[in-house]
Amino acid sequence: MSESKTKLPDARTTPRFAGLCTFYRYPLICDVLAEGKAVDWAVYGCPFDTGVSFRPGTRFGPRAVRDASQYIKVHHLEHDVTVTHALSLADAGDAPVNTYSCEANHEGMTDYARTLGDPGHTKLLAFGGDHSIALGNIRATWERRGRPAGGLAMIHFDAHLDTVDALWGEKYGHASPFIRAIEAGYVDPKRMITVGVRGPLNTKADLDYAKQNGVRLVTAPEFRAGGVGVLRDFVKELGGAEAYLSFDIDCFDPVYAPGTGTPAVGGLTSAEGLDALRALAGVNLVGADVVEVLPDRDHAQVTALLAAQVGFECLALAAV
User: Fold this and answer.
1) Is 23-319 a CATH 3.40.800.10 domain?
2) Which residues lie closer than 8 Å to 73 by C-beta, 6 or more apart?
3) DSSP labels, 89-149
4) Residue 185's CB: how many other CB atoms inside 10 A?
5) Gap between the Cα atoms of 253 and 241, Å rounded
6) 302-319 and 270-278 are packed helices; what angle lies between their axes, rounded to 10 degrees?
């Protein structure tokens, strides 16, 4: 057995309900760096929800996911990879929060993300918070990848498009991260796929921006009918290009993820969503986020545990 690159507590000595609660029981980034070791992926929280348009409370999402992640183990059965042997992983704490301004929070979060690990090496997995936090992690990832002209490829799982220009005059809320990312050049819309979108919509025109800019839309019914082949094909088309993955937990049907702020019926089952993520094997993943967990609407940690599993699937893709 190969040596682990990530030092974890021994679950036979320190049970999973004991000890310091970090994402997946990973060590703190300050401890890893103090030992002079590299960090391949920094996992951190973004406890911000001022960008929501319906139910608030996702500011408590990172804390809930940390707690639920204690039972996520290290070997990925389907990919046959032990994630902690392939990658050096660390919990990088929480980004600072500006509770009263979405734009100011974006700037502060981006500044924090820039400091994590080695900017030329360490990749970032962010847990929200609402979907507005994705913009900061996308921006920091784009910068770390050398500011590629045209932007990063994007894989987006969501019930909603999140390309609304503004809600109530707010351009940095959770309905707008991808229009801002595309405008700024962080994301290439012609190499972007959005999976899980479903109605009803406020207006048919909500689809216009994505369609006019080349975003590939796969509705939840279309995905259910066509299966994971569309994602395998998308990975092949990328040909190794660097890609970012953003996963809104409301991509799942609220039966499977009740703890979210903008639930939409008819979404993916938990099994369908995990199959979709695993179909991305081979993607060159350089950053990711998992957002919109609202613990107050959750029960038995159903949503938080599913979000923790989604984050682990992202890390497993990187390990593969």
Assistant:
1) yes
2) none
3) EEEEEE----TT-HHHHHHHHHHHHHTSS-TTT-EEEEEESSGGGHHHHHHHHHHHTT--T
4) 14
5) 31
6) 10
Going from N- to C-terminal start, the domains of the chain cover 23-319
Residue labelled with tokens 């991305």: 280
Residue-wise pLDDT tens digits, 104-139: 999 999 999 999 999 999 999 999 999 999 999 999
Give me the residue label for tokens 């600072």.
96
pLDDT digits (tens, 9 = 90+) for 245-273: 999 999 999 999 999 999 999 999 999 99
Beta bridge partners of 156: 194, 246
Sheet containing strand 89-94, edge to edge, reads: 89-94, 41-46, 123-128, 284-291, 242-248, 152-157, 187-197, 216-219
Q: Between 17 and 124, where is the model more confident? A: 124
> What global pTM score does this model have?
0.94
Q: What is the mean pLDDT of residues 62-90?
A: 96
Give the total residue count for the chain: 320
Least confident window among 14-28, 124-138, 141-155, 189-203: 14-28
For 235-258, letters b (16+ CB in 10 Å) and e give: beebeebbbbbbbbbbbbbbebbb
